[in-house]
Design a protein that fits this description.
Number of strands: 16
Shape: globular
Largest sheet: 7 strands, mixed
Structural class: alpha+beta
Strand content: 25-35%
CATH architecture of the largest domain: 2-Layer Sandwich
Helix content: 25-40%
Number of domains: 2
Distance between the termini: 32 Å
CATH topology of the largest domain: Fructose-1,6-Bisphosphatase, Chain A, domain 1
CATH class of the largest domain: Alpha Beta
C-alpha cells in the first residue's frame, strides 16, 4: 500500500476505536482489571484493540499493540515497517471520566516514527502528522474521513502562537519529584512559567500545536505512549529527545520502555 492508503486505514481504525470507547464510556461499569504491570485495563481498551486489529490487518503490516500478544524481540527486531498501537492511552483518565484519553496509532520504520494519528474520542480532537510533510488538527471527523480530507480541511499545525508565559505540559496522574525539580530549573530560566496538567498523549499534541512550549517526562512510559505523538511533533519541527536534548527517542527496543524524555 502507498502511504496515503496506509494513513486512510489508520484514520478509520482510530475513529472506529473511538466509537467503541465512547459507547463504553457512556456506562458506569467499565470491567476494570489490573494487568501484570499493575496498570488498569478496561472493556474499552479491549474493544478498541480488536477494532484496530480488524481494520489494520488488511495492510499486511505487523501490529504491536499494548493490548495484544507481545511478539518476541528476536522476531520483531527484524521488522522494518510496522504499526505501533495504544488502543486507549490514558486508561486512568478514562476511569476518572475527565475526557483526557486518546487512541494512538503510529507507523514505525527502522525504529523511527514516520506517521502518527491521535484521537480524543470525547472531545473530538484529531491530530495527524508526518515528518517532513506536515501536521494537522481537525475536530470531530466523520467515520469516512481520509488523509486527503485532513490535508484539505484540517488546521495546519502549529496552530497557536507561543504565549508570553513559558508553558509546561505535565502528566495529570503521574507528576513526580523529578519532574517538579526540572520545572523548578525552568522557573530559574524563564520569567513566568505556567503549568498545565493533561492526560495521555495530548501533552505531546499540545507542544505540536503550540499551546505548550515543553513536556518533560521523568517517569515510566512505553513506546506506544509516545510513538504517534512523536511523528506529529517532528512534523512541526519539534522532537522528543532524551534529557540531553540531543539524542532522539527511538522505537522497537527490546523491553519497549521509554527512557526519560523531553518534548520540545
Amino acid at each position: 500500500m502507498e502511504l496515503h492508503q496506509l494513513l486512510d486505514k489508520a484514520i478509520t481504525a482510530t475513529l472506529l476505536a473511538g466509537q467503541k470507547i465512547r459507547k463504553v464510556y457512556a456506562y458506569s461499569h467499565f470491567d476494570i482489571e489490573v494487568k501484570d504491570d499493575l496498570t488498569p485495563v478496561t472493556k474499552a481498551d479491549r474493544l478498541a484493540h480488536q477494532e484496530i486489529m480488524n481494520e489494520l490487518e488488511c495492510t499486511g503490516l505487523n501490529i504491536l499493540s499494548e493490548e495484544g500478544d507481545q511478539t518476541d524481540y528476536s522476531v520483531r527486531k527484524n521488522w522494518d515497517l510496522f504499526w505501533m498501537v495504544d488502543p486507549l492511552d490514558g486508561t486512568k483518565e478514562f476511569i476518572k471520566r475527565n475526557d483526557e484519553f486518546t487512541v494512538n496509532i503510529a507507523l514505525i520504520r527502522n525504529n523511527r516514527s514516520v506517521a502518527g494519528v491521535i484521537y480524543a474520542p470525547v472531545t473530538g480532537e484529531f491530530y495527524l502528522g508526518i515528518p517532513d510533510l506536515g501536521a494537522w488538527k481537525f475536530i470531530n471527523p466523520p467515520l469516512d474521513f481520509t488523509f486527503q480530507n485532513m490535508q484539505d480541511l484540517g488546521v495546519k499545525l502549529p496552530e497557536l502562537k507561543p504565549a508570553a508565559e513559558y508553558t509546561v505540559a505535565v502528566s495529570r496522574s503521574h507528576l513526580n519529584h523529578s519532574t517538579e525539580k526540572y520545572i523548578d530549573e525552568l522557573k530559574e530560566k524563564h520569567a513566568s512559567v505556567e503549568i498545565i496538567k493533561k492526560g495521555s498523549s495530548l501533552k505531546i499534541a499540545m507542544v505540536a500545536e503550540g499551546s505548550a512550549n515543553i513536556y518533560p517526562k521523568f517517569g515510566q512510559t512505553m513506546e506506544w505512549d509516545t510513538a504517534a505523538g512523536h511523528a506529529i511533533a517532528k512534523a512541526v519541527g519539534k522532537n522528543i529527545f532524551l534529557p540531553d536534548l540531543k539524542t532522539e527517542l527511538t522505537y522497537n527496543k527490546e523491553n519497549l520502555r521509554n527512557p526519560h524524555f523531553i518534548v520540545i
